[in-house]
Amino acid sequence: MDLVISPYHLTTREPPALAAAVLSSRAITFLPEPFSGADARSLTRAVAASPRYLQAMDAWRWSQPLWDAGLFATRGEHDATLDHVHEAWEAICSRDDCAPLRSLLRPDLFAEQSRYLDAISRDLLRGGPDPGISLPVAAGLDRFACSNRLAVLRTAATSVAQRVEDRLAKRLLTVAVPLAVQADAHRLADLRQRLDQELDEFRIALRDLVDAAYDADLSGASLAVDPARRIALDRAASALTRSFESQREQLLRDARADEVRLIDATCTLTIAMLPADAVLQSGIAAMQALTGRSLLSGSIDPARAASSTHTALAVRRDALDGRGVVTIVVKPLGSASGGRSGPAGRLR
Question: Which of 87, 134, 255, 298 has a 20 to 30 Å separation from 276 between CA atoms?
Answer without folding.
Answer: 298
